[in-house]
Amino acid sequence: MTQPDQLLAEARALFPGGVNSPVRAYKAVGGEPPLIERGHGATIWDTAGNRYLDLVGAYGPLVVGHARSEVVAAVARAAEAGGPYGLTSPGEVRLGQLIRARMPAVERLRFVSSGTEAAMSALRVARAATGRELIVKFDGGYHGHADSLLVEAGSGAATLSLPGSAGIGRAGEATLVARYNDLDSVERLLAGRRGQVAALIVEPVAANMGVVVPEPDFLTGLRQLCTAHGALLIFDEVITGFRVAPGGAQELYGVRPDLTVLGKIIGGGFPVGAYGGRADLMDLVAPSGPVYQAGTLSGHPVVMAAGAATLELLDRDAYARLDGLGARLGAGLEELGWAVGRCGSLLTPFAAARPPRDFAEAKQADLAAYARLFNALRAGGVLPPPSQFEAWFLSTAHGEADVDRVLEVASGDGAGSRPQPAPARPVERRSDDRG
Hints:
Elements: H1 3-14, E1 36-40, E2 43-46, E3 51-54, H2 69-80, H3 90-102, E4 108-112, H4 115-130, E5 134-138, H5 156-159, E6 175-178, H6 183-192, E7 197-202, H7 218-229, E8 232-236, H8 248-253, E9 259-263, E10 273-277, H9 279-282, H10 301-312, H11 316-335, E11 339-343, E12 346-350, H12 359-362, H13 367-379, E13 382-383, E14 392-393, H14 400-410
Parallel strand pairs: 3-13, 5-6, 5-7, 7-8, 8-9
Antiparallel strand pairs: 1-2, 2-3, 4-10, 9-10, 11-12, 12-14
Helix pairs in contact: 2-10, 3-10, 6-7, 11-14
């Protein structure tokens, strides 16, 4: 048995399915998953010595690539200083200031250790502020694995064809599900439960059903509907925050949410989350107010240092370059017959007649064609996400030559990677009310 085979066998004896997050098991694309041992820039290496161009980027946080020297140096300094301390440190203040300067809607914030914690805590604040119980989310939206948010979730749950999760009990009964890019479905839910909805939570650019971009006026319409019905608007920018623009999707689309959920990039690759927003809402959080939330490792000095170093590398020129790389890759994939959903350096190719506008359409894409593309790319030394329902991520460590290499491998005549999409089937537009 080779070393990688032995390690995989040992992992399966230790972890459910051999992994610590389901999508890593490669169930949707087949084959044995690689065991990655190091990365640098845009490249990663597995334990068998194979080298790959990385299009996963830890699902978003490595926007400046692996082992960027400035980030490594900041982490080393923080680690050498000791900690965590169980007390506030200067690094928390510095990163908080950087976030607020780029995202003015975040007047106050609280660091936590994961996006799941951040989304869960934001909903708690919303319920306390409004005195209401119900929330609205979108079919295919993924906001972490808190019970009430796993109803009709995207990301790994969609990859495994799970409608939600076992074990959530009655928590999901407080969750109403609308259709992304369909304002009518949202209005029906809010009107049908008038005065009962505390908040609407949305990925402003859906990135957990594959990348699905908002249609014109969709986000503006959500802002107007929430204001009219007294519900809080929560943007889950765990993926889009500081990825699609300096101030995230809320800057890109010009919409100001009441609360924002952050993660990924603000930790520079380390575990982190944050929630923040209007000062009056965040002042409800203990010890200022009655909403209790705590975390022993929140604001960890090493994580704060990595996040601050990452944000400081992201100027407007960096975003322009990332968008250019995304446009080059998206256009090239479209020339090969793929329907591409893209926002900046986030993109997903679909074997379909057009990019999807919601989760129902995303699920109509040819999943087998995506699996063929994945395996052709992997065989050619390129590693994209092993699921149709995840985003591809570019970083500042990628260059035009890397993009051209992806396209060259994807166009290989013997790879069987070109899609043959059937015409899009009509999708009934309706509202799913699971309250």
